[in-house]
Design brief:
The structure is a homodimer of 478-residue chains. The first copy, chain A, has 478 residues and is an alpha+beta fold. Chain A has 14 helices and 23 strands. Helix content of chain A is 35%, strand content 27%. Strand 5 of chain A pairs antiparallel with strand 5 of chain B, so a sheet runs across the interface. Chains A, B: Keywords: Aminoacyl-tRNA synthetase, ATP-binding, Cytoplasm, Ligase, Nucleotide-binding, Protein biosynthesis.
Chain lengths: 478, 478
C-alpha cells in the first residue's frame, strides 16, 4: 500500500494562498484536526519544530535570569475580573468550566486565556521586600481563546506559547525589560527563523488589554499580509494596585512594583510557513528544522551505497548536524518529493558514481541549486551550505518586505496601494483614534505599529491633514 | 525587612509527617496555593526540579525512538465514552467545559484526565499501513482529575506528567514496549532519584481503566507508606477495536494494532521529598537538584574571600556542575539553614583561613559530614562527593525498604505487622478479588503489586488458605 497521497499536487500558492496553507500543514504532516473545532493536533514533525523554537528561546530567557514556573490552567471568574481593562479584553472569548465530577461548581472557572491574573495573585502572596525583586518568571503552556473562525497555527481555540511575567522595583527597570524581551524576539525571528521584522509600538487601539504600552515585531508573509511575531507589554503598576502587590523598599516603605509580560506562540510556525513556503511545500529555516539534512541513497541496492549513506549520516551527526537518511523501498523520486514537501533545507544524494568520484550532491531546498561536495570536505561544506540557505531565505523575505512597503501621503494614495498592490503602507498619523478607524474603513488596513525607525513621509496626518505625530505601518493582518 | 520565616522550625517528621511535608513544600519555596482547591503553583525551584526530570526522561524516550506530540486539552464527551471501561474509570472525576465565550456548547467537553481517547481518534485518521508502525508517541502536559482531598504533588486536581502512547503491529511488540518503558522508569528512579523500587504487575483490581495489564514501580516513603513511581500499561487491541484503528499488513489484510501507554508525573517529586527529606527540610538527589553545590563565603568582607568564591563557582561551572554562590548580606548561619531547607546536596564553605590553607570545606546535606577539599582537587573531588551523596541516599532508602518489608503467612500475622510496625507485607495470594478486599478490610492494606522477583513465602493464600498463585506486596498507599 503506497503512500500515494504524497504525489498529489498542492494548490498553487499564488492562486489560493489559504488553500495552499491548508494543503501544506496537512501534507507535510504538521497538523491533524481533532473532533473539536479550533483544536489542532501538533503531529511529531510540527512539535519538533516547536521544541527547537522552545530550546533556543528558553536558553536565551535563562541567560537573562528568567526562571520557569507553572500556574494553574483554571482561573476563578472573580480573579479574572480584578483588573477592569483586562477582563473586558478577555472575558468574551474564554471557555468556562462549570462542573467538577458530578457537582456544579460554586464559582465558574475559565480555562486560562493568558495568566497575568494568576501571576499577580501569586505575587501578592510571596513578594515581601526589595530583596525579592526583580521577579523574572516565564511559563510554557497552552491557552484557550474561543475564536469564531479558526485555522491551524494562525488562529486556534487552543495554542501553545510562552508567557513571560516580570516584576520590578522601578518603572525604568520594567520598561528596560520590555524592550530587552522585544529585542530577544526580533533577534530570534531574524537569526533563527530567517524572518525579517519591523520593531515598533502598538497604538492605543491595538495594545494588550490592561497594558500601558505594547511593543511588537511585525513580519510580512508571502501574500504580503502582516503577522505579529511576538509582543512585549509594559503594565506600569496598574495590576499591582488592582491585586494589592506591594513590597518594602530600601527605606522600609511600602511600594507598588512595576510589571511586564511578553509572549510568542505557535502562531510563529504559521508565520514561517507563510514566509518561506513554496509550491513544493514547506521550506524550513535550518536553525529550527527538525531534520537539517536528508541523505538519499541513489541506486541503493548497488554495493557500497547504503554503507556510504550511513557513513555520511554518522559523520554529519558527529559534526552536530540534525541528519537522517531514508533507506525505505520507495523510489528516489518519491523521496525527493517527500522531503521537499517537508521543507528539509538540504538533500544529499549519494550513488555509485558519486562514491567513485569521492563526492555527493547537495540540493538546496530554498533555491533548488545543486552543489557537488567533495566527501573529504563534508564537515565544513554542509554547515556552510546550511548557513547559505538561512541567508538565502532571509534575503528573499527581506526583499519581499522592502519591495512591498510603500509610503502614502493621502488616504486616496493609501487606498490605491492597498487595493492594487497589497503589502504595507507607511503614512504619517496625528495620533487620533478616528483617523485610525478611517484607515480601516476606507483603505481596509489596520495599524501594525509605530516603528522605532521613524521616517518623515509627510508633515501631516494621512487622514485628517492635522500635524503628524508618528509614522505608522498599516497592513492587512492575520 | 529580614526574611524571618526561614528560621522558623518545621514540624518534626516523626511527630506529624503530613504537617512536616506541608512545611517543607512551602518553606523550601516549592509550592504556593492558588485560589482554587487542588491547583498548586509550581514555584521556580519546584519547576526546575521538574525540568531536570523532564530532561533526563525526554532524552531517554527519544533515544528509544519516541517523538513528542501535542493533543488538545479538551475531549468531547462522546469521544471519552467510546471505550467502556475507560469512561467508567475516569468520568466521575473530570472537569467539564460547558460554555465557550457567551454560548452554551452543544456537547460538553472535559478537560483531559488522560489522553488515550485523543491518541486513538488521531490514529484512526492517520494509520494506513504496516510501514507506519510502530507509532511511538509521548506528550508532556498537565491533566485534571477532580479529587476530593488534595495535597501538593501527591494529589492535585491538576498535575503535570508525561504520557507515552504507542501502537504496534503485534501483541509481542506492544508487550515488549510496556516492559521496556517500565524499566526506563525503574532505572530513572534508582539512578537519577536515588529511590529504590519494586517492579511488578498490578492486580485486576488495581490496574488502569481499560488496560489488559498494568505494571508499576513501587517505592517506600520515610513513613513506610507506598508511592507508585510510574506505571506502564498494555492495552491489547481493545481501544483499537473501539476506535476503529486498522492498518494494512504485509499481506495487505486489514488488522488491528496493539497499544501501550505509560506515565510518570510530578507526584514523583512528592515521592522524592518523602523518601529523602529530614527535619532540616528537603534533601535533593544530586542528579536532579537545580543547585548541586552552594558556595558560601565566610567572613566575606575580608580581602580575597569574594574573589575566591567566584573562582570556585566558575571552576565548578566549567566542570559541568550546577553551582551558585550566595553573596547576599545575610549571615552565614542564615544561609546554611536556607540551603539545608532547600536540600542542596553539597555546601562549600570558603573563608580566609581556608584560602590560606588552599582548601575549602564541603558539607554533605545527606549526612552532615564535613570534608576538607584541597582547592587543587576541586574538579575531581566535588563530582565524586556528589556521587557519594547519591549513593548515600540510595542506600539509606534501600535499607528502609528492606527493613520494613516483612513476610506474613496468615491474615492475623499481616494485621499485626501492619498495626505494630507499618511498612510492606509480602504474602502469598490465591488470585481472588475477595481475598484482596479482605486484606484491605482486615489488615488495612491494598495490593501494591505482584513483584517480578517472586519469593515462596508459603504454599497457600494468606486469606483463604487455598493454593497460592502469586506473592503480593501489600501496603498503605499515597
Amino acid at each position: 500500500m503506497a503512500k500515494d497521497k504524497k504525489v498529489e499536487q498542492i494548490t498553487d500558492m499564488d492562486v489560493d494562498f489559504a488553500q495552499w496553507f491548508t494543503d501544506v500543514v496537512t501534507k507535510a504532516e504538521l497538523i491533524d484536526y481533532s473532533g473539536v473545532k479550533g483544536f489542532f493536533i501538533l503531529r511529531p514533525y510540527a512539535y519538533a519544530i516547536w521544541e527547537n523554537i522552545q530550546s533556543i528561546l528558553d536558553t536565551r530567557f535563562k541567560e537573562l535570569g528568567h526562571e520557569n514556573v507553572s500556574m494553574p490552567v483554571l482561573i476563578p471568574e472573580s480573579l479574572l475580573q480584578k483588573e477592569k481593562d483586562h477582563v473586558e479584553g478577555f472575558a468574551p472569548e474564554v471557555a468556562w468550566v462549570t462542573h467538577g465530577g458530578a457537582e456544579e461548581l460554586a464559582e465558574r472557572l475559565c480555562v486560562r486565556p493568558t495568566s497575568e491574573t494568576l501571576f499577580c495573585d501569586h505575587w501578592s502572596h510571596v513578594l515581601r521586600s526589595w530583596r525579592d525583586l526583580p521577579m523574572l518568571y516565564n511559563q510554557w503552556c497552552s491557552v484557550l481563546r474561543w475564536e469564531k473562525t479558526t485555522r491551524p497555527f494562525l488562529r486556534g481555540r487552543e495554542f501553545h506559547w510562552q508567557e513571560g511575567h516580570t516584576l520590578h522595583a522601578t518603572p525604568e527597570e520594567a520598561e528596560a525589560e520590555t524592550q530587552q524581551m522585544l529585542n530577544v524576539y526580533a533577534d530570534f525571528c531574524e537569526n533563527s527563523l530567517a524572518m525579517p521584522v519591523i520593531k515598533g509600538q502598538k497604538t492605543e487601539k491595538e495594545k494588550f488589554a490592561g497594558a500601558v504600552d505594547t511593543y511588537t515585531v511585525e513580519c510580512m508573509m508571502h501574500d504580503k499580509k502582516a503577522l505579529q511575531g511576538g509582543t512585549s507589554h509594559y503594565f506600569g503598576d496598574g495590576f499591582a494596585r488592582a491585586f494589592g502587590i506591594q513590597f518594602a523598599d530600601k527605606e522600609n516603605k511600602l511600594a507598588y512594583p512595576h510589571q511586564t509580560s511578553w509572549g510568542m506562540s505557535t502562531r510563529i510556525i504559521g508565520g514561517l510557513i507563510m514566509t518561506h513556503g513554496d509550491n513544493s511545500g514547506l521550506v524550513l529555516p535550518p536553525r529550527i528544522a527538525p531534520i537539517q539534512v536528508m541523505v538519499i541513497p541513489v541506486a541503493m541496492h548497488k554495493e557500497g551505497v547504503l554503507d556510504k549513506a550511513a557513513e555520511l549520516v554518522s559523520r554529519l551527526k558527529a559534526a552536530g548536524i540534525r541528519v537522517k537518511s531514508d533507506v525505505s523501498d520507495q523510489s528516489p523520486g518519491w523521496k525527493f518529493a517527500e522531503y521537499e514537501m517537508k521543507g528539509v533545507p538540504l538533500r544529499l544524494e549519494i550513488g555509485p558514481k558519486d562514491i567513485e568520484n569521492g563526492q555527493c550532491v547537495a540540493v538546496r531546498r530554498d533555491s533548488g541549486e545543486k552543489i557537488t561536495v567533495a566527501l573529504a570536505e563534508l564537515e565544513t561544506r554542509i554547515p556552510a551550505l546550511l548557513g547559505d540557505v538561512h541567508r538565502g531565505l532571509y534575503e528573499k523575505a527581506k526583499k519581499n518586505l522592502i519591495d512591498n512597503t510603500r509610503p502614502a501621503k493621502t488616504l486616496e494614495e493609501a487606498r490605491t496601494i492597498v487595493a492594487e498592490k497589497g503589502g504595507f503602507v507607511k503614512t504619517m498619523w496625528c495620533g487620533d483614534l478616528a483617523c485610525e478607524l478611517k484607515m480601516k474603513e476606507d483603505a481596509g488596513v489596520s495599524s501594525r505599529c509605530m516603528p522605532f525607525e521613524q521616517e518623515h513621509v509627510a508633515d501631516t496626518c494621512v487622514c485628517c491633514g492635522k500635524p503628524a505625530k508618528k509614522m505608522v505601518i498599516w497592513g492587512v493582518a492575520y
